[in-house]
């Protein structure tokens, strides 16, 4: 899950180079949308992965499937 977050962050420079340069003045902020969407994707994937791991460890302790290092 965190590999997708890292891949999304590393894709940003490539996406900015590959996008065609906007010749229309109305589309001059095209790269800003890519930066905002990539930042939102990285934040969403990172927070989803963090809370999924945290929830799994928190809920598994009742069933005895937790990690011994995190009990204390």
Write the layout of secondary structure elements.
Elements: H1 2-18, H2 30-60
Helix pairs in contact: 1-2
Can I get a quick summary?
The chain is mainly α. The protein has helices at 2-18, 30-60. The longest helix is centred in the middle third of the chain and has 31 residues, at 30-60.
Explain this structure to me?
It is a single chain. This protein is mainly α and 72 residues long. Helices cover 67% and strands 0% of the residues. It has two helices and no strands. Helix 1 (2-18) runs antiparallel to helix 2 (30-60). The longest helix is centred in the middle third of the chain and has 31 residues, at 30-60. The protein is rod-shaped and about 55 Å long. The model has no long low-confidence stretch (mean pLDDT 75).
User: What does the average pLDDT come to?
Assistant: 75
Order of helices and strands: HH
pLDDT < 50 runs, ≥5 residues: none
Helix content, binned percent: 55-70%
Distance between the termini: 26 Å
- Quick one: how many beta strands? 0
Continuous helix count: 2
Sheet of most strands? none
By secondary-structure content and strand pairing, the structural class works out as mainly alpha
- What is the radius of gyration computed over CA atoms, rounded to a whole number of angstroms? 19 Å
Strand content: under 5%
Shape: rod-shaped
């Amino acid at each position: 899950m965190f590999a997708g977050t890292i891949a999304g962050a590393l894709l940003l420079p490539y996406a900015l180079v590959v996008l065609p340069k906007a010749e229309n003045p109305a589309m001059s902020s095209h790269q800003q949308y890519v930066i905002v969407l990539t930042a939102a994707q990285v934040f969403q994937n990172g927070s989803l992965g963090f809370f999924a791991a945290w929830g799994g460890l928190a809920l598994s302790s009742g069933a005895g499937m937790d990690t011994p290092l995190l009990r204390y």
